[in-house]
Every structure is written in structure tokens, then in C-alpha cells.
Amino acid sequence: MKQATPPQRIEPLENARIEWEDGAPWSKEYQDIYFSRAGGLDETRHVFIHGNDLSSRWRQQDRPGRVFVIGELGFGTGLNFLTTWQHWRETGCRHLRLHFISCEKHPLTREALQQALAQWPALGEYSEQLLTQYPDHTPGYHRLLLGNEHDGEVTLDLYYGDALDTLEQQSNPQVRIDAWFLDGFTPKHNPGLWTDALLEIVARLSAPGTTLSSYSVTGRVVRALKALGFEVEKRKGFAHKRHMLHACLPHGRTDSGTDEHNPARTEGREALVIGAGLAGSTVAWSLARRGYRVTVLESRGETAQGASGNPQAVLQCRLNRQPDALWQLNLLAFLHASRFYSVLQAQGHDFDWRPCGVLTLDGAYENTRKAPGADTYCHYPPQVLRRVTRGEASDICGLPVTDDGLFLPEGGWLNPVRLCHALLSRPGITVETGERVTALHRDEETDIWCVSTDAEGGQREWHAPVVVLACSHAVRELDQTADLPVLPLRGQISQLPDNASSRELRTVICGKSYLAPASGENRHCLGASYRKNSTDTSLSEEEHREVLSGVTPFLPTLRKTEEARPARASVRGSSADFVPLAGQVPDPGAWRSIYGGAQHPGRKSQPLHSHYLPGLYVSAGHGSHGMAGCPLSAEHIAALVSGEPSPLPTQCAQLIDPWRFMARRARRQAARYP
Ligand code: SAM
Questions:
Q1: 312 φ, ψ to 5°?
Q2: 545-580: per-residue pLDDT in tens?
């Protein structure tokens, strides 16, 4: 039998080793300075901002729906990024958004970054926002949503790992970079970065009109760029340097001569989102952030009434025993969600986000999976997850517990109903309740989807070029998605009125069930049960007892637990492989046409553009982990819709691509009838 290839192991990150010279950082790995001693800020402005003619290009492109994407090699201290952000804000663009991607192999620790940035008081407000969200540990992509609706929104994607590997992993093939900052130390000190292979990727991610700049004018780099089609020019260097490099990919005869190289960015920006739970609310928010006018159609009379309707929901990370792509997906999604909720809350949205940490006790694994040993999860960065003894666990959570466990400091709980309200209140979003979607139909001539709904007043039709299905297992009621394995998974929660002992609880506790700290309504949620394929929402005493016995025995001093009552049952949508579905909807007939053909997925696992339905997307199957999975899935879908950079590396995007079920089906057929 053919041996399965072991999943690729993702190596941990190594932070930068810094020496401080007169307060400025110097790299021990590369034996080089991070920025010019003659003035880092002025160097950034000269080489990168003016070097790419950013001000005039930004003004020229300041139109609704436009985004300007910068790619940087070497994030370092973030000085280039912060200066660019400040400059962009001073330019005063009204519509243009800034998207900054920066690759970094050895991120500074948060402490080192803080020390390095302390010398630029003029960048204080920007540095502060960066430091609040800055991750310094996990390899892969980290999306930081910065700024706000009033002063302009900026997206920073940190790609942690080698620049070549991480840029190659961008999962949206439509992405084009408008300007490059080549700042990965000099070729003399860091020849491993300035390879032909990397410059080829730079060229591949560029389009006519893309510029790049660098302080280095090394002959080999200049020759390689020219060979890749760039027009290269030596301009006056900064301070004592004679030259710096400016390059531009010229417009061909058929190009318009402007920067408008990505048609996906400028097409009609209207979208319909089906479902106003967490999956739909996050997608609507991400699309509205990109200038889409979004109409959310919800079958119930109010938003967030399904599985997103519990009074307290827990954000935790799904744990994996190997550092592979699934581990990375779960970890990146969790970290993104935790940052996202903090950002929204800091912007004044009150949905009770409490990043109080989540403590999972070893008893949680009894009878289900093997209990974790001391080393089981040591591939998690200690900032994210650490083992704690029973004594430490008791100190952390405020009540004596019976077991050792795992502590996830960035986890917590929030009120998902109020979160959905906050997301849907964003300008550009309209919610239509009581509209049950019955069918979808695409007009091939206009590329417009027509969505039919049943409402109290009769049948209605809605039109848009983009439709996102975020209606959990109800996606199976629609012809286009009837084959997607999103299955109902009933869950019931209980509530316990708080009391003197329970108010001591400071973190979420997970045994076989979870118990959240007291909410503003003086209650604790406990939950939740799991019943596959059940859509029944009546309350069950049996499940209530199950939920209670799953956590209260771990907290021997918790009193008055007999006062707990069954509170609410709802139905989640769970996928057949317990990984969400987020991406473009595959053509239901595609697997038949590819099976047996040269393209069939048994031979070629990459789906083709023609295997998907144009303009139709899905975010579903988040199971009981929607709190962690929805925000990043939403950003991924919005990126695919708008032709912008995805927050997911390919190896993670493939895991959630609904296409995988088609591919498996075709593979099964191929094995059965070779
Ligand atoms: N732009 C930075 C700033 O504003 O502070 C300065 C960047 S510093 C000159 C160069 C950076 O490139 C270092 O942080 C280094 O770790 C990073 N680097 C070096 N080789 C790399 C590689 N192969 N992939 C990604 N980053 C790399």
C-alpha cells in the first residue's frame, strides 16, 4: 500500500539577536545595522517613500474601492512601515486604503521593538497601535487591522519566515504589489535573501506600473531586475551614499499607462451575504471595510439568533499535536480573532470581550483522547500556550482546581449577539431580516446573481455580482451547495446564577464542558453539549446534567451548582472533516467533468479557475469554533472577492477550500473505477 506522505513540519521562529549601539539596534545574525545612523526616518522617506513616488501615486489613485499594496523585504523595527503609514495619513487620501505586507525571518521580540521605536517620538501614536497588536512568535501570516474608519484604515500583514517561502505561499493568485521596499540588509551581509529566485517572485507579484526601491545598487541585483523586465535607474542615495536603486515595470503597448492593473479591484462593489450570525456578520464587515455595499439577508426576525445567540461564547484555540498546516491554520485564526476583538472593542464597540485566558484541565481529555503529556504541546510558543500545574492553575483562575492543565492567556469570552450587532452596524451594511433564501440563479450574460427569498409579504428577489453563503447547514438547501457536507450539530448550554464562590473565577475553565466567569447579568454560561445531526432546539435535562458534570467536579469549592438551569439549545453547522469551509463555491458538476480527465484531482490537486462558480462564496462549518475561525475566514473571502492579499498562506487556505470535498470525491471515484 502507498505510504501517506507525512505532513510538512513547520519550524519554530527564531527572534532577532540584537545588540544596541548608542540606542540603535544592530543585528548579530547579519552583522548589519537596521537603519542609517545618519537618520533612519529621513532615510526611509528618501529611499522608500520618495523612491517609489508614493505621494503622487496615492493622490492619483484615491478613488472608492482602491487599495495600494506595498511589499517589503525585512520588517525589522517597523520603521519603514510606521513612517509610510504616517506619510499616507498626511497625504489625506479619502478613499484609498493602504495594505502593507512585510516579510520577516527573525522578528524582534516585543521588548526589543518597543526599545527600538522609543527613539521616534514623532511616530508615537502609530508605534503604540503596532505594539498593542504586535506578535513576536508564531511562523506564518499575521494580519493586523490598524487605524480606524475616520482616520483611514491600514492593513499590515506580517509574513513570518523566509521571504521567499512566505511570498510564494500567498494564496490569492490575483494579488499584485504596487510598490516594493527591498530592505533586507545589504547583499554583501545577507546574500541568502537577494537570490534570483526571490527577485523572480518579486517580479511575478508585480504588474505594469509596479515600482521598487532599495539603498543597494549591487550590480548583480540590477542585472537580475533588468533581466526580469524592470527598467532600472540609479538615483541619488541617502546621506553619504552616492546611489540608491529605483526600478519600474514598464507599461506595455496594451496597458492603460495607469496603476489600474487589477480589474478585480474596481468592478461593481455590491454583495449579498446570506445569514446574520457570526460567519455572516464578519464577512459583511470585511467586505464593507473594502468599500462594498453589503445587504445581509437573514431568515429569522433578528440577527444572531442561531448558534451565535448564546449570552457568552468562548474564544479558544483548537489544539493539534503536530506543528503542521492544520496547527498553523488554527493558531493563526485564533490569534487573529483575539486581536480583532480587542481592536473592535478599543474602537468603542461594547460586546463584553474579556481576554481573561482559557484554562483547559487535563480531565478534559479523559475518555475522549489521550491526556496530553508534559511535551505534547511544546510546539506552541509559550506566549500562546503553556502547561501549568494544578497549583498554578488554581492561582490563575482564582478557584482551586483538581488537575494540571494548559493555559491560553489570549483566549477569553464575549457576548456574540452584541458582537454581531457591532459588526453589522458598520456603514455600508444593510440587514434585511425575515428573508429566507429559497434559490440562487446566476445570469450568465451580466454575471449577476439573483437570490430569491420568501418573506412575510411574499417572494422577493435580490441582485448582486457577489454572494456569500453564511447560513450554516442551510447551505444544503440550495442547489449550488447541496453537496457540501455541512451537518447540523446541536448544542445546549446551561446557566448558573453567580454566587460568592463563583465570582472568584477569573478565567474560562474547560473540563469536558466549559464554565465562563460571571457575565454582567450575574450569570455564568456552561456548555455545551454535542448532538450530531439533530436540529431539535428544545431543552434537555440529560444534556444539562452532562454539561454540569463536565466541569463542576474540577472545581470542588464552587457552590450552589444545583441552581444551574438548562438555558438554550441551538444548532451549529459542522463540516464532515471538522475544518470550516471558507472560500469560493466549487461548481457542483466540476468533479464529474474532471474525473477521468487529465486534470482530475487524483493527478493534479490544484483546482482550476473554471472549477468554481464565479462570484459565489461560502463561510460555514465552523462548528463550535466559530469565535476563532470566522474573522480570519471572512478576511480570506473578502480578499478573494476583491483581488487583495489573502491573510492565509496557501497551505492553510487549501485546508478550508470547499473544493477539497470535490477533490476527495473524484479521488474516491478514480480509486473505485480506475
Ligand atoms: N525595514 C526595517 C525597518 O524599518 O526597521 C529594517 C529591515 S533590516 C535592514 C533587514 C531585515 O530583514 C531584518 O529584520 C532581517 O531579520 C530581515 N531578513 C533578513 N533575511 C531575511 C529573509 N531571508 N527573509 C525575511 N526577512 C529577512
A1: -135, 130
A2: 999 999 999 999 999 999 999 999 999 999 999 999
Please tell me the predicted confidence (pLDDT) of residue 1.
40
Are 384 and 408 contacting, i.e. CB atoms less than 8 angstroms apart? Answer: yes
- How far away, in angstroms, is 109 Cα from ligand 1 center? 14
> How far from each other are the two terminal CA atoms of the chain, in whole angstroms?
16
DSSP code of residue 306:
S
Side-by-side strand order, sheet with 152-160? 140-148, 152-160, 97-104, 67-73, 179-182, 211-214, 243-248, 231-236
Å from CA of 74 to ligand 1 middle: 3
CA distance 370 to 386: 18
CA–CA separation, 181 vs 403, rounded Å? 51
Q: E-assigned strands of 355-420?
A: 358-361, 386-388, 405-408, 412-414
Output the nine-digit C-alpha cell for 54.
Answer: 508614493
Contact 307, 489 (CB under 8 A): no
Q: Look over the chain and give the mean of its residue pLDDT values, rounded to a whole number.
A: 93
C-alpha grid cell, residue 245:
536603486
Q: Are 492 and 569 in contact (CB under 8 A)?
A: yes
Residue bearing the CA closest to ligand 1, atom 17: 74
The answer to whether 269 touches 292, Cβ cutoff 8 Å, is yes
pLDDT tens per residue, range 651-671: 999 999 999 998 888 777 777
Any atom of ligand 1 within 6 Å of the Cβ of 364:
no
* Residue closest to 658 by CA, chosen among 487, 471, 484: 484
Name the residue at shortest CA distance from atom 19 of ligand 1. 184
**Residue 165 near ligand 1, beta carbon < 6 Å:** no
Instruction: Give buried/exposed letters for 93-106 (b at 16+ CB in 10 A, else e).
Output: beebbbbbbbbbbb
> What DSSP line would sit under 128-164, residue for residue?
HHHHHH---S-SEEEEEEEEETTTEEEEEEEEES-HH
Helix axes 626-642, 325-346, angle to 10 degrees: 90
Among protein residues, the one whose CA lies closest to atom 6 of ligand 1: 76
Number of the ligand 1 atom closest to the C-alpha atom of 29: 16
Give CA torsion, residues 9, 10, 14, 16, to 10 deg: 140
Q: Which residues pair with 568 in a beta bridge?
A: 493
Q: Which of 337, 351, 228, 346 is nearest to 286 (CA)?
A: 337
> How many CA atoms does the CB half-sphere of 631 hold within 13 Å?
26
Ligand 1 contact via 18 beta carbon (within 6 Å) = no
At position 348, the amino acid (one-letter code) is G
* 528: preceding bond cis by omega (within 30 degrees): yes
For residue 56, CA distances in Å to 48, 53, 263, 646 come to: 14, 6, 21, 27
Which one, of 154, 109, 107, 172, lies nearest residue 289 by Cα? Answer: 154
What is the C-alpha separation between 41 and 79, in angstroms, rounded? 7
Q: What percent of the chain has pLDDT over 90?
A: 85
What are the residues whose beta carbons fall under 8 Å from the beta carbon of 526, sequence distance 6 or more? Answer: 493, 494, 495, 496, 513, 514, 515, 516, 547, 548, 550, 551, 564
In the predicted model, is pLDDT for residue 264 greater than 50? no
Tell me how far the alpha carbon of residue 105 lies from the centroid of ligand 1, in angstroms.
7
pLDDT in tens, 189-244: 999 999 999 999 999 999 999 999 999 999 999 999 999 999 999 999 998 889 99
Q: What is the pTM of this model?
A: 0.96
Q: Which three cell numbers stand for residue 463?
A: 441582485
Q: How far is the CA of 247 from the centre of ligand 1 (A)?
A: 20
